[in-house]
Amino acid sequence: MSVLRTLIKRNKVWVMASVMLSLIANLTQMIYMYYVGELVNKIESRTAVSIVFIVLLAALIGLSVITLFMNQYVGRIAAEKMAHTLRMGYAAKMIHRSVEHGKECDTASIMSVAQNELAQADGYLVNVFFDITGMLLMGILATVFMFIQNVILTLVLLIPTLFILVYVGFSSRSLSSIVSAAQNEKMKMNKAGFAAVHAFPAIKTFEGEELCRKAMDERLISWTKHQTKVGRFSALYNTLSGIMSRVPLMMMLLAGGYMVIKGKILMGTLVLFLNLQNSLTQSIMNLPNWIAGFKVFTTNLSRVDIE
């Protein structure tokens, strides 16, 4: 985590800008959803819809589009800035080591780290990190917003969600261990490949090509088996979490429909909750992969030293 803190600290302006824009974009979406619910309430109660209300709703739609675009744009820049800091920091550390130790520097380990830990951490930062942060932030804000609107409907949604989170905790730990094992096998395979290329003159001289090819094939088969296992368990855990995430929706529809029929809430409130619950359930559906991916990401960073 120390490397991640360093990356955030060195790019704190972009990180803070991305978090603030994510907050603004999510709040704008929730306000827009709230006014959509108000529009449904007006239609249901046959209340006149003023021009000012329509203009406000149109303005919120436009503002939501702009903030979402800016959030994605700045988030991508922030992620690339952090990834660049990681790459350059690692290169600077390796140069510093080579100057200090000369030939004592383990080139095979350096290349293995560059092909595994550094490449995967770089890809996670650019493609995943800020997207997940934004979705989790939206889930938290949506939960708070729903509590403000209606406590009973929010509890109906959250109580089954707590049981799903227990499953997510179990599945994410299991998946992260499988991913880590596959990652270690890939690291061994890359080290074997680099060692074979590095020692090729000696291997050629003593006719050791067949021995090296056999060793490389064994590493490749082992890594392929682990990678297949990752894909299989990832599909299983995420499919189950996706199915389970529909349970809170069904319960909320039953409870919300009953409350609408009894006149305890208006249809617009139920529509608002249907829109907001998607932000929460979407986060829950992908939590096993997200948690496993983040654990692997932090593990990768723990193996990378930067200057």
Task: Please characterize this protein's 3D structure.
This protein is mainly α and 307 residues long. The protein has helices at residues 2-10, 12-44, 51-101, 107-149, 151-198, 200-205, 209-244, 246-261, 267-285, 287-302. α2 (12-44) runs antiparallel to α9 (267-285) and α5 (151-198) runs antiparallel to α7 (209-244). The longest helix has 51 residues, at 51-101. The radius of gyration is 26 Å and the shape is elongated.
Secondary structure topology:
Layout: H1 2-10, H2 12-44, H3 51-101, H4 107-149, H5 151-198, H6 200-205, H7 209-244, H8 246-261, H9 267-285, H10 287-302
Q: Whole-Å distance between the termini?
A: 15 Å
Order of helices and strands: HHHHHHHHHH
Could you report the average pLDDT, rounded to the nearest whole number?
Answer: 77
Q: Report the total helices.
A: 10
Percent strand equals under 5%
Biggest sheet descriptor: none
**Over all CA atoms, what is the radius of gyration?**
26 Å
Q: Quick one: overall form?
A: elongated
Number of strands: 0
List keywords for this structure.
single chain; 307 residues; mainly alpha; 10 helices; 90% helix; 0% strand; elongated
Briefly say what this structure is.
The chain has 307 residues and is mostly helical. It contains 10 helices and no strands.
